[in-house]
Amino acid sequence: MSKYWNINKALSYNASIILVAGARSIGKTYTTLKHCVKRFIKHGEECVYIRRYEPELKAVKKYVFSDVATDKDFKDYVFRLVGSEYQIAKQPKDKEKPEWRTFCYLLIASRYQDYKGIPFPKVKYIVWDEYLRENNRPPGYLTDEVGAILSLLITISRKRRDVTFFLLTNSCNIVNPLFRFLHIKNEPKKGYTQYKLGTTKDGADIVLLIDYVPPESFQDESLNTIGGAIADGTKYGDYITGQMLCRSFPEWRWLPFGCQTPGPTENRVGRASVSGIHPDSAGLPTPSHVRPTSSARFQVFPVPQPSPGVFQSMILCP
Questions:
Q1: How many other C-beta atoms can be found within 10 angstroms of the C-beta atom of residue 90?
Q2: How far is CA 304 from CA 185, 253, 262, in A?
Q3: pTM of this structure
Q4: pLDDT below 50 — which residues of the chain?
C-alpha cells in the first residue's frame, strides 16, 4: 500500500465537495496540488488555493508550491508567485524568456464576498487547506462558515458542474459548523462516506464526500517522525496519527437562557458578543468570565455531569 493518500479514488466518486481528513504528513495537500499542476499542464485547468484568514495565507503563500515544484515530474518547469497568483513556465533554454502562465489563484475565505463578480472560467479545482481548526483559540471559524463554502463554490463554478472543492484537514475536533450542517454527531466512518446535499432541477445529485483516512493505514509512517516518536504513547498520539477528537457530542449541553456558567470552562462552541452568542460560529472560544444574559440565544459548554432539570437536551441542527 502507498504511504501517501490516494486522490484518484476520492475523485472517482464525482463529488462536488471532497473533505479529506487524516493524519499529518500523508500527502493530502501535496498530492492535491500536484494533481492540480498536472491537470493544468495537460488540460489548462486552473485551481484556487484558500486559507481562512489573511494572516494564515500571508504566512504560507510563498511556500504553497515549494514541495511540488521540486517534484521530478516537473523538473522541466519553473514556478513563481506574482501577487496572489502562481505561475508556471517551461524551463527556458539558453537566453530565452519563460512564457509564464497563471495556474493558481490565492484567496482568503473570510473575504469571500469580495470575490463575487470575479470570473474564474478555467478553474476546475478549489483547495481549502487546513480546513478544520485544531483548537478553539481565536479567531476560530467564520461566522457563516457553510455560507462561505457555498458562496465560493458558486462564485467560481457559476453554471459549471465540473468544479471540485477540496477541504483538506488533519483529523481534528468534530465540533465544527460543517459537521453540524451535515448532522454529523459522532466520528465519521473510516473510509468514504457520501452526503447528498441537494438535487438540481434536471435531477442531478450534488454530493459531498468525506474521505476519513483510517488512522491505522498510515500510523507507522506518522509515528516514524521526530514529532511522532515524541507523541507516541501520549495524549498527542491520536492527533499525530489522525484520530478524530471529541468523538461524541453528548458531553455538550445547551445552557438555558439567562443562566450562569458553572465556572471557568474551556473549549466552548459559540461566538461571544455584547448581545450574546451566535449559533453558527462553532469553534470560537469565549472568555471564561463571560456570563450569558437573557438576550443570549444559547451558550454551549462542556460539562461532566449535568444536573437533572438544569441542562436541556442537546439538539445540534435546526
A1: 14
A2: 18, 10, 11
A3: 0.72
A4: 239-242, 244-318
